[in-house]
Design brief:
Length: 325
């Protein structure tokens, strides 16, 4: 996204991606960073002049300053990519201006918020990657997917309510109206995830009968525990205490010895098996979520990309607002 598109001017510099060179500059923290630019042999000299001019004008700093208004890390990355893509057309600039104007209208109306604070798009991207591999989702990834789906649904509901009150808003909010209406919403997936994953990221006991049974068995066995070393039940004894037969796990002067009684060995083995059953049951629960998400994975990925684009549009609005003030 050319920065000039956000503020009303249009510039188009044709570049053919056949050769590259790098521009090095410092960001606001004084750290060096490098931007790679692709050019053709025919435009090599001209492009170098253009990018050298941008370097002198500290374009890198401005890009990083503007991208900082994104609410998500993926939004910041997308903003930087578009800011450096200076071979966009006049029509691209007009489209970006339309999106920015629509964002301004939305913010003025107050019905729809493009603030993605609290939505971790990186975790959603990670979730999509795991699901494509048919690997079990991690609980925090599942919750991130829920947050994104809920954001999309809330945004759509708010937009529909606003348009219901004033039909003219459909046109005033274009092209964002169309972008938002096309976002994927899946209440069934939200419900499935919330039924098994708690808000703190733990898997609920009620997620499956096998998990509830395994955790209950672990708790029952752990009640018999006197002490635990490396997950095994044992008894801590002092130097003056009676000795008994068992496996010596550790010993030190002044502290005493830690012994696993021979009678506790079968109990410890049972405890380890019960804990392994808990791990397996949790993995099965998360794998079931993976399978549910696989059904609509392409739509979820499209939604993620759409939300990233909305974050970029929000950057135009929030950065312009900041500069105006």
């Amino acid at each position: 996204m050319p920065l000039w598109a956000a503020f009303g001017d249009s510039i188009s510099i044709p570049i053919f991606n056949t050769k590259s060179f790098a521009i090095t500059n410092k960001n606001r923290r004084g750290r060096l960073f490098c931007s790679t630019v692709a050019v053709s042999d025919s435009d090599d000299k001209k492009s170098r002049v253009v990018y050298e001019s941008l370097r002198v004008l500290e374009w890198d700093k401005l890009c990083h300053s503007v991208s900082s208004f994104a609410r998500t890390s993926l939004g910041r990355e997308a903003t930087l990519t578009q800011l450096w893509s200076i071979n966009q057309t006049y029509q691209d600039s007009l489209r970006l201006l339309d999106e920015t104007n629509a964002a301004v209208e939305m913010q003025k109306h107050g019905s729809c918020s493009l603030d993605l604070t609290g939505v971790d798009l990186s975790l959603v991207k990670s979730a999509i990657r795991e699901v494509r591999r048919a690997s079990p989702l991690r609980p925090n990834e599942a919750l991130a997917v829920v947050a994104l789906l809920q954001f999309s649904e809330t945004l759509q509901l708010s937009l529909r309510a606003a348009i219901k009150e004033d039909a003219d808003l459909y046109i005033r909010f274009m092209p964002l109206t169309q972008m938002i209406m096309q976002l994927f919403v899946n209440r069934s997936l939200i419900k499935s995830i919330m039924q098994v994953v708690d808000e703190d990221g733990s898997i609920k006991d009620s997620a499956s009968p096998a998990l509830k049974q395994s955790r209950g068995q672990v708790q029952m066995l752990e009640r018999k525990e006197v002490s635990s070393i490396q997950g095994r039940l044992c008894i801590r004894t002092g130097a003056d205490q009676l000795s008994f037969k068992g496996l010596l796990l550790s010993s030190s002067s002044g502290i005493g010895s830690v012994i696993e009684p021979l009678s506790a060995v079968p109990l410890n083995d049972e405890l380890q098996q019960a804990r392994a059953s808990v791990t397996k049951a949790e993995e099965d629960v998360l794998l079931a979520l993976t399978e549910k998400m696989q059904v609509d994975l392409d739509e979820i990925e499209k939604m993620l990309n759409g939300i990233i684009q909305l974050d970029v549009v929000g950057v135009c609005y929030f950065s312009a607002l900041s500069f105006l003030h």
